[in-house]
DNA sequence: GTCTATAGCCCGATAGAC
DNA sequence: GTCTATCGGGCTATAGAC
């Protein structure tokens, strides 16, 4: 199983870097340090490889979606949005390249709307926990809109940076910039201490990425 | 020149609908109702066709970027964001498919960061005009963040709808949904009359699209 | 300007030796 | 499991008749 995993990981990284359509099977085999025939032994079609990456994405996203705020609303919030940004970074091409050549990972196409709706609800829960803890002042009836807008800002942060000509690979600060940007939606209504803790947590998240 | 224009327009529509990488030159020639050789007579490379579409985008975006709020801050705002959404809809694939196969319209790659920065500044001007007219209550020092967040919500609205499984072609209401969504960022700080006028203007924009 | 015919390339995928 | 060799096909692009 180790070779198969290596192919999936190499493909995921290359597709993210160069685009799904721009990475041919021969280029991928070369990047894996193996002959093309061997690649076809492990994945009978290019599409099967795409679906394998899609399934890893599903695992990551489901693991994040079951997270709930617990004893520390501020720290819990930072951890959850960090996990979310990790998904967007690591499986970026699955969304980004979906429409360019007419091929989709089936599991993504089927589940993306549900995942997004559950992400809205999850973020709203975390924001509500901040309100309940007195760390954020925000009217209940506008919490859902805030969650939706925050999710969109987070979701497209890397693509926005790319369009601005910024490097968006790991360790270039794009994740950090995106997290900071989404804080501008509501930090002015947080207690100064809570806002400061979120900023500090964001700095730490990016540092952890540089190490990885 | 008429055949050349027809090719550019047909290509723009097909690329938006099916993705740049998924529309071959032979499929494009068929869609134009001409032989493939004729297409190559008008555009020596596929890339030249891409650049021709990019130049039309540049014309549209520069025309919108010189707009400024005048006598009617609310109506002017609605007209400007409608023009912006028109660009995003009509030249959608230029941004969306940019990274999937490694080909870019040169003019877009070179100018996109500048266009986006000028869009931020433009939107901020319009929002400031609303504040000056007493139609919007928003602190000056947070107007820039609002402009940035609104731009991102508008910019990625169609892609968000697509990921949610919604039809995003003209006349499916995606432009309208996106415009309504961005209003949730600040309409709670507008006078009820101004907010109502913006909603009405958005309804009219979509109706105009259905007619076109 | 528009057509037909075709070149040349690279792609995804297969067959079969080791 | 991994390799070499190769196929069929679609793609971008060219040549040349009309």
Q: What's the arrangement of secondary structure elements?
A:
The structure is a homodimer of 212-residue chains.
Chain A: H1 2-18, H2 25-32, H3 36-42, H4 46-65, H5 73-90, H6 92-96, H7 106-132, H8 143-155, H9 157-163, H10 174-183, H11 192-211
Chain A binds a DNA duplex (18 and 18 nucleotides) through residues 3, 24-26, 34-38, 40-42, 44-46.
Describe the structure.
The first copy, chain A, has 212 residues and is mainly α. Chain A has one domain (53-211): Orthogonal Bundle (Tetracycline Repressor, domain 2), CATH 1.10.357. Chain A has helices spanning 2-18, 25-32, 36-42, 46-65, 73-90, 92-96, 106-132, 143-155, 157-163, 174-183, 192-211. The mean pLDDT of chain A is 95. Chain A is elongated, with a radius of gyration of 19 Å. In chain A, helix 1 crosses helix 2 and helix 4 (46-65) packs parallel to helix 7. The first copy, chain A, is 72% helix and 0% strand. Chain A binds chain B through residues 18-22, 95-102, 112-113, 116-117, 142, 145, 148-149, 152-153, 155-156, 159-160, 162-165, 181, 184-185, 188, and chain B through 18-22, 95-102, 112-113, 116-117, 142, 145, 148-149, 152-153, 155-156, 159-160, 162-165, 181, 184-185, 188. The structure holds a DNA duplex (18 and 18 nucleotides).
């Amino acid at each position: 199983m180790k070779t198969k995993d290596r192919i999936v990981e190499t493909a995921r990284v290359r597709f993210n870097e160069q685009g799904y359509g721009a990475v041919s099977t021969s280029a991928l085999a070369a990047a894996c340090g193996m002959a093309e025939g061997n690649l076809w032994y492990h994945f009978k079609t290019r599409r099967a490889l795409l679906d394998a990456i899609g399934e890893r994405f599903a695992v990551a996203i489901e693991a994040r979606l079951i997270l709930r705020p617990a004893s520390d609303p501020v720290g819990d919030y930072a951890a959850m949005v960090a996990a979310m940004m990790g998904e967007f970074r690591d499986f970026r091409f699955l969304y980004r390249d979906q429409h360019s050549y007419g091929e989709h990972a089936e599991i993504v196409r089927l589940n993306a709307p549900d995942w997004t709706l559950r992400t809205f609800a999850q973020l709203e829960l975390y924001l509500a926990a901040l309100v309940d803890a007195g760390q954020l002042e925000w009217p209940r009836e506008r919490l859902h809109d805030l969650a939706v807008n925050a999710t969109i800002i987070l979701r497209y942060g890397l693509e926005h940076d790319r369009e601005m000509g910024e490097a968006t690979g790991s360790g270039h600060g794009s994740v950090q910039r995106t997290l900071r940007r989404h804080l501008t939606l509501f930090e002015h209504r947080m207690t100064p201490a809570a806002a400061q803790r979120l900023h500090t947590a964001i700095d730490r998240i990016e540092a952890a990425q540089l190490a990885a």
